[in-house]
Design a protein that fits this description.
With 386 residues, the protein is of the alpha/beta class. The protein has helices at residues 8-21, 38-46, 59-75, 89-103, 121-129, 146-152, 175-185, 242-245, 268-306, 327-338, 361-385; strands spanning 82-86, 111-115, 132-136, 157-163, 188-193, 218-221, 234-238, 249-250, 258-259, 310-311, 319-323, 343-344, 351-354. Strand 2 (111-115), helix 5 (121-129) and strand 3 form a beta-alpha-beta unit. The chain binds pyridoxal-5'-phosphate.
């Protein structure tokens, strides 16, 4: 650090220079984040100093957090859920499994069963919590194979995980079947709805995934993805209050006597942002926003089919995975020649497109045009070789 402080204008100009190297979301089809809603940004700024790690000092923000939990409970069919606002899906998943593990202290070598399609946060969980994470295979439609889940369960299995909106394909596991298995075995079931939690309640699809299923014991849902809040905004909800006690540690020198959160200091700004955007949009606003993303996904699918491409699965949500040969090369050329950001799925290999609220019809059409151009170049270079 330099000895004397720099002036405000010089710092802002360095910041703007750095920001100019950041990409704009308009050409990003690889991210589950988007521009936050303007009212979320406004609320975030208003509560910038609020620390929920010591919420006795910020009782107003704490009340907002309780309201958010109530609104999320209302979306997820629980009149009084227990939980807190996290930094995102990773923290929610870690804490859900940590609570299960602590609830089952008598089991020496605990394991959980997750689908192979689970987010990589479950690999972090295996490492941090020293718990075995068993991976269950998926069927051809990329939903978890519940027969295989049942085979992987043994006397050391403390819980299952189902995904409501998988990261790569936007697929939803048969949560209702997982709920039956978990209920019958008397084990926990955590639902990772980090992405799908702000989609499924707003589309007309018969895909139950929430607390209406008796076996579901916890849910992760991320306001900073399709909830249009600011980063970092995740949420972890439990069916029962006692699960919070399994996370509790004493905090002797704070205004509160204990904490159930993973982080200590915690942003009150994103609590306010989430409150503001959920209140402002309401069910109608989210329904409109999700329906627009779903229509754009259908448009992208139709246009892709016109150029001879097919989806790996029929899109359930606003994620489209297109089967192509050489996906890695295509991704590179789309970025280098046209500035598009797309990602690649693992199994099966495909290009993955997430159609977030920042996408427009014009951009979808421009993207397909550029994709066609890259595919044509590949074809003509193949022809020249032969
Ligand atoms: N779970 C799912 C299904 C996700 O798609 C993601 C992120 O893409 C996560 C968890 C992790 O969320 P975060 O990056 O907010 O920690």
């Amino acid at each position: 650090m330099q000895q004397s402080g720099q002036n405000w204008n010089d710092i802002i100009s360095s910041l703007m220079q750095a920001k100019s190297k950041d990409l704009h979301y308009e050409k990003v089809l690889s991210s589950m984040c988007t521009y936050p809603h303007p009212i979320a940004v406004e609320a975030h700024k208003l509560f910038i100093e609020s620390n929920m790690g010591d919420y006795g000092l910020f009782m107003g923000t704490y009340e907002l957090e309780q309201s958010v939990l109530k609104m999320l409970g209302n979306l997820l069919n629980h009149s009084h859920p227990y939980g807190y606002l996290t930094t995102g899906g990773t923290e929610s998943n870690i804490q859900a499994i940590r609570a299960m593990r602590n609830a089952c202290k008598s089991i020496q070598n605990p394991n959980i069963v997750v689908p192979t399609s689970a987010h990589f946060s479950f690999d972090k969980i295996a490492d941090i919590l020293k718990i075995e994470v068993r991976k269950s295979r998926v069927l051809s439609d990329l939903t978890v194979d519940t027969d295989h889940v049942s085979c992987l369960i043994d006397e050391n299995t403390i819980g299952l995980v189902g995904i409501a909106g998988s990261t790569e394909f936007g697929q939803v596991d048969p949560i209702s079947k997982l709920s039956d298995i978990a209920f019958e075995k008397g084990i926990f079931l955590h639902v990772d709805a980090a992405f799908g939690g702000f989609i499924l309640p707003f589309i007309n699809k018969d895909l139950p995934f929430d607390f209406s299923l008796p076996g579901v014991t916890s849910i992760a849902i991320d306001p900073h993805k399709m909830g249009m809040s600011t980063i970092p905004s995740g949420a972890l909800l439990f069916r029962e209050e006692k699960m919070m006690d399994f996370l509790r540690v004493d905090t002797p020198y704070l205004t509160i006597s204990s904490q159930c959160t993973l982080t200590g200091t915690r942003s009150g700004a994103s609590v306010a942002a989430t409150y503001a955007v959920m209140k402002h949009l309401g069910r109608d606003g989210y329904t409109q926003m999700v329906s627009r993303c779903m229509s754009l996904t259908q448009l992208l699918l139709q246009e892709a089919e016109k150029i001879g491409l097919h989806p790996v699965i029929d899109p359930v949500m606003n994620i489209l995975a297109l089967s192509v040969s050489q996906p890695k090369k295509i991704r590179k050329e789309l970025a280098n020649q046209f500035g598009w950001q797309v990602s690649i799925t693992r199994e099966p290999l495909s290009i993955r497109l997430v159609i977030m609220p920042h996408m427009t019809e014009a951009n979808i059409l421009a993207f397909v045009n550029d994709l066609k151009s890259v595919l044509d170049q590949f074809e003509s270079s193949e022809n020249n070789k032969s």
